[in-house]
Amino acid sequence: MDLFNYSRRESSEVNIGATPLGGNNPIRIQSMTNTVTMDTEACVEQAKRIIDAGGEYVRLTTQGVREAENLKNINIGLRSQGYDTPLVADVHFNPKVADVAAQYAEKVRINPGNYVDPGRTFRKLEYTDEEYAQEIEKIRARFIPFLNICKENHTAIRIGVNHGSLSDRIMSHYGDTPEGMVESCMEFLRICVAEHFNDVVISIKASNTVVMVRTVRLLVKEMEKEGMAFPLHLGVTEAGDGEDGRIKSALGIGALLADGLGDTIRVSLSEAPENEIPVARKLVDYILTREGHPFIPGKKAPQFNYLSPGRRKTKAVRNIGGDNLPVVIAERLEGSFETNPQFKPDYIYCGGSVPQSRDNNIAYLVDANAWNPEDKNVYPAFNYQQIIELHHTVSDLKFLFLPYMAMNDEVIAALKLHPEVVIIAQSNHPNRLGEYRAMTHELMNEGLENPVVFFQYYQETKAEDLQIKAAADMGALIFDGLCDGIFLYNQGPLSHIVVDTTAFGILQAGRIRTSKTEYISCPGCGRTLYDLESTIARIKTATSHLKGLKIGIMGCIVNGPGEMADADYGYVGAGRGKISLYKKKECIEKNIPEDQAVEKLIELIKANGDYTEK
Q1: pLDDT of 373-387, one tens digit each?
Q2: CA distance 311 to 483
Q3: Nearest-angstrom CA–CA distance, 533 and 19
Q4: Scanning 152, 478, 491, 496, which has its CA 20 to 30 A from the CA of 60?
């Protein structure tokens, strides 16, 4: 794979009804209903809203055989109204349901974590090599008849691995690792290959964006080793709602799309499913603007590990680089200098002069020719044409605005003499990611340890568009370990507060700086056992001030305890109108009436000393 120049990965084509996937087909957009699958009319109407919004596949949960059989009626209802969009059955725990669904849906999703293996109990199991081989044979014995049904009915399948539902068998053998997730998938793919079944799509998801990106990268490498080219379905599970859901999804999915990976995407928001489609469409369309871009002559640094990158080694300059958290630089060239106390930038760039009234908790950047060494907590910012002046300016912290194509021998020599320089990387290339990677790899190749802050320029009028584009641009840079800071600049009507909040949200979604409560909330489906959207709103109202806390909000048990293993507290649907509360993986209280559960959650957080009053 070329780190610096965009091209889509070559994948095999999969036939899914009238809408093929992979190969030379467009990147497809999809969503999932959250209606009860036995309610034919509700499912048909919601599916129509998804399709009318631009959805190219519609997935429905199928908990049991009755739900699988009702897909026939839903399919008829849609076809009778002129909709030929393929339906996808979502199956967990019961392979018999998959057998039935394959007769009525154009694609069936199965979960390797619970297709044959029993439900996850977090038990540590021990296997001899022979016993482990016997477990694989059990999968073959149950999976091959399903593949035969799919062949007979021309039904495609999705092998959908979720971080939250890995089996105890895989967990015991591989641990809670990307390698375990990949092997869970490969076990099933090898059977498909052996049985000459090729209409297979793969997804391998997590709510943790770092795990999700590393796992998909590793999966592609493993498939290449075994001569496989199956298409990829991308998504971040339990991304949440609102700004958080959009940023987290665009960061994780965008990082992979930017490397040419992905043939279909689902943006999982805890909102009405039709709201997911425009977000997904914007994300795909933005990444595809890179097609056919001018060549970027980057050279990969030998120490860089794409499959498991660590943070680039840099020398700390003041609070930037080294082991410091990535910083946020903001712009205040005009208008108010107001900031949000929760999302206060570390530095503000203010051009030719600094404000007379200043915040002592913020440092300021001023253009080098206007910088006054007597001005405390203010630092000079140079452009690359001022490289000679750099030598004569006495400051323990300097900033250098630098495009990749300006990195000539003179600039490199100056950087070697001035470790106190923080680079603000600039690019107006159609593929900014490629140029920013090329710059940081050249720094590594030259042995330079100057920190790098990425400048991202936009002209957006809507907050959602800024969130999607900025997160997509920063994703791979964060996951590659290259980010010492972010500088978002938006020339448009959006407030400075919105831009600042977006920058902090991107760093939190990438798991490299925490500034607020994180909510790991599922998008809801026909399995959801309570009113998800109103519950999320109530929990956020009570807890959004608890900086650094992670709270999982799950509609049912499918991914609940597993996906919430990364969360501090969990709120999980246990039955119709009943809730179970978790601390980490441990269930603390079961079957709480829904109208009492949010208050009980707050009591649990308080009892463990993690609650502070607003």
Answers
A1: 999 899 999 999 999
A2: 8
A3: 31
A4: 152
Q: How far apart are CA 449 and CA 512, in angstroms?
A: 19
Q: Return the number of other C-beta atoms located less than 10 Å from residue 593's C-beta.
A: 10
Residue type, 95: P
Tokens of 190: 């090898």
Contacts 24+ apart (CB under 8 A), 339-345: 339/496, 339/497, 339/500, 340/497, 340/500, 340/501, 342/515, 342/516, 342/547, 343/497, 343/500, 343/501, 343/503, 343/504, 343/515, 343/516, 344/500, 345/500, 345/503
Q: What is the DSSP letter of 465?
A: H
* Farthest CA pair distance, the chain: 80
pTM: 0.92
Q: Are 565 and 577 in contact (CB under 8 A)?
A: no
Alpha helices in 323-385 (DSSP H): none
What is the layout of strands, in order, in the sheet containing 586-593?
Answer: 518-521, 550-554, 569-575, 578-583, 586-593
Is residue 37 within 8 Å of residue 49, measured between CB atoms? Answer: no
Cβ neighbours of 429 (radius 10 Å)? 18
Asked if residues 550 and 567 have their Cβ atoms less than 8 Å apart, the reply is yes
Q: Of residues 527 and 274, which shows the higher confidence score?
A: 274
Residue 591 CB contacts under 8 Å (≥ 6 apart), including other chains: 574, 575, 578, 579, 580
